[in-house]
Structures are given as C-alpha cells and as structure tokens.
Design goal:
Number of strands of chain B: 11
Oligomer: heterodimer
Number of helices of chain B: 0
Shape of chain B: globular
Strand content of chain A: over 45%
Helix content of chain A: under 10%
Number of helices of chain A: 0
Structural class of chain B: mainly beta
Radius of gyration of chain B: 13 Å
Largest interface: A-B, 23 and 27 residues
Radius of gyration of chain A: 13 Å
Amino acid sequence: SQKIEQNSEALNIQEGKTATLTCNYTNYSPAYLQWYRQDPGRGPVFLLLIRENEKEKRKERLKVTFDTTLKQSLFHITASQPADSATYLCALEGYSTLTFGKGTMLLVSP
Amino acid sequence: DAGITQSPRHKVTETGTPVTLRCHQTENHRYMYWYRQDPGHGLRLIHYSYGVKDTDKGEVSDGYSVSRSKTEDFLLTLESATSSQTSVYFCAISESTLAGSTDTQYFGPGTRLTVL
C-alpha cells in the first residue's frame, strides 16, 4: 500500500514569508496528487490537484510541484498570512479512492 | 460549500451499543466515502460507495458496515461500539468522470463519536 510522509512537526513562520510543506511517498507514483486544507473542528477542503505530467501548478498565492523521480510534492504559500494557519494534507489517488497523509500544521504569526 | 450534512454531529454512547451515522448529500455525486480521523493516524478510509447498493471496504473496515439505498444517503453502522471506535468521522463525496480514477473530494462537517 502507498505510504505517505508529511512533517509531523508544526511549521512556524512569520507573516509575509513563504511556507513550504513537503509530501513524500513510497511505492508507485500516482497519476495525480491533491492538497487539502483542514481547520480545527472542520472537514478538509480541496485546494489543488497536480497530475504526473505537470511539474508545477499555481493558484493565487499557492504553488504545488510534483517530482515523480524524487517521489515528492512541495506545497508553497507565498506572502503567508495568519489566516493561512491550518493543517495541510496531501492525498494520493488510488483506484476510486484517495490515501491521505497525516498532515502538517502551519502556524503563521503576525 | 458542497451540500453535505452529517448527523448526528456529536454522540456519546456506551460500549456494546449499536450506532448509525448518516451522511446526506444534495449534489447527486456518485461516490461517497466514510473516513475516521484520529491523532497520530490522520484520515483513514473505512468504506466507500460507487453507486446505490455498491460498496467496498477501505483500510480500516473491521467493526463497521455501510449501506446506500439512495444516491443521497450513505449510512455507517457500528454494530457493537467499542472504545477504540471513539473518533471523528467524516463523510466525503466525489463525482468521478474517468473510470478507475477519483475526482476532488468534498467533505462534510464531521461527527464526533465518543464510546464510553
């Protein structure tokens, strides 16, 4: 089965800086990978999807990269804001299902 | 927000009692999923459905059963609840357009279940 690793330690950064979160996986490379945001007490919310033939995907201040050779995806938030504080989950596709990482908590201080 | 509701939102029950959680969608999406989320384990798939009366097991299906008699409703049943089933349960929906693939998932607000 697919193993997914995300930093278990919280990432603390200052407002205005770029936050970079890492998602590493083992076994097969998925056809695509997704990133979700989860706020305390709420369900995850979809942010971005990147396919295996895409090196990079952007949406406003968000950028995702996907390196199938390294088996790694990086998730960047530029010009971070306190409102970006949340847990970010990566998810890899399977057959009709997704496998989620445990998530990394991001804390952006003013 | 996608039209997904879960009921109840909170429940406290005793070991050995049956519990049923309900997920209801208004999006007419084909796929529905039940996850549990626990500290240190993240989100884990319990069961999922790919159509009315069509279901399959996920990673942590032992002790759980599901039913889907209508497109909009997906029920999760704990036949005899145990303390290890204390968790937050999330329902999700997805409208897959490609065979064998999955689209974006939209999550419900969650149900917090405590088994004493």
